[in-house]
């Protein structure tokens, strides 16, 4: 999967003292994955309605003392899986714009949303 061709997801801003709809989600891309700009205040929500569980991979793009840092992974359970992941640190950034690249083991019935918590 290629980061350059990944489908961009625009984060939904969660403003203070404001009602924000979080119902809108987009389909996961099975060809090149998805990308979005992330900070330490970014949340990734993945919903899986398929009969099989999936694995979500958040790619790293960094080394530490010559060693490549491992990708982060988490699972979304089958049928009713609705998971939120946080913890986007600098080693997940794929470029100077702080974009993150996410891939999915399967995409049937998989949707996602990205939220940015705003001060």
SSE topology:
Elements: E1 7-8, E2 12-14, E3 26-27, E4 34-37, E5 42-48, E6 54-58, E7 63-64, E8 67-68, E9 72-76, E10 81-86, E11 99-104, E12 110-117
Parallel strand pairs: 1-4, 2-12
Antiparallel strand pairs: 3-12, 4-11, 5-10, 5-12, 6-9, 6-11, 7-8
How would you characterize this protein structure?
The protein is mainly beta and 119 residues long. The chain has one domain. The chain is 0% helix and 44% strand. It has no helices and 12 strands. Strand 7 and strand 8 form a beta hairpin.
The major β-sheet equals: 5 strands, mixed
Q: How many domains is the backbone divided into?
A: 1
Oligomer state of the chains in this structure: single chain
Distance between the termini: 34 Å
Helix content: under 10%
Q: Which strand order spans the largest sheet, edge to edge or round the barrel?
A: 1-4-11-6-9
Mean pLDDT: 92
Give descriptors for this structure.
0% helix, single chain, mainly beta, 119 residues
In a nutshell, what does this entry contain?
This protein has 119 residues and is an all-beta fold. Helix content is 0%, strand content 44%.
